[in-house]
Amino acid sequence: MKKPFEIVFQDTHLLVVNKIAKLLIQPTPKGEKITLTTLLQEKLGKRIFPCHRLDRETTGLIIYAKNKSVQKVIAEEFRRRKVEKRYIAFVRGKLSKRGGFLKGYILDKEGKIFGEKPKEAITIYKVMKRSDYFTVVKLKPITGRTNQLRIQLAHIGHPILGEDKYAFRRDFYVLGRKVNFNRLALHAFFISFVHPVMRRRISFKINLPQDMEEFLKKYSLYPLKV
Description:
Elements: E1 5-10, E2 14-19, H1 36-44, E3 49-50, E4 59-65, H2 68-79, E5 84-92, E6 99-106, H3 109-113, E7 119-130, E8 134-141, H4 148-155, E9 173-174, E10 177-178, E11 186-194, E12 201-205, H5 210-218
Parallel strand pairs: 4-11
Antiparallel strand pairs: 1-2, 2-4, 3-4, 5-8, 5-11, 6-7, 7-8, 9-10, 11-12
């Protein structure tokens, strides 16, 4: 069985964790007992506090605070857009441009249910590699809207492989062939922020998870330099 997480950094104030796919950060209204937070708390023997979110199927880096005051400071850094995050995604088809901006007003499905208003979302993207069937894209969200990357890429007709919320099964056929990934092909590989106590910027970068590497090898696109 795969380890559900890897502690990338830890000090007396916070930790940065690399999480595997298909593991929740926090329980949903269904009340799941096993989450990344509960597993970390069991390992550390103390309560900790997630400072942001990753989808269940998204892999990669997430920050945890070891007390509420640190969590509050980091949350404010997110609010002020001072935390830099970068992702790698595999998206359907070939993007026509090598890079640019994704801009627009978006609203996730839960927001629609609760009558929220669309909010502006901005993402910088850069094409890393292409095959005939999918494109490897580096993504840097400027805003932090819920499901921002998933929604924006689906809106331009290039949904993330494995997407099942903002795309349909038919959306993943290219040149008559279905392009399939067994989860959402999205990985948070880089994060940079100002340490809430030391007040200096720290940055972390990790490799792609094994399943994404194997997928690239299958299409002769490995290795990938990010």
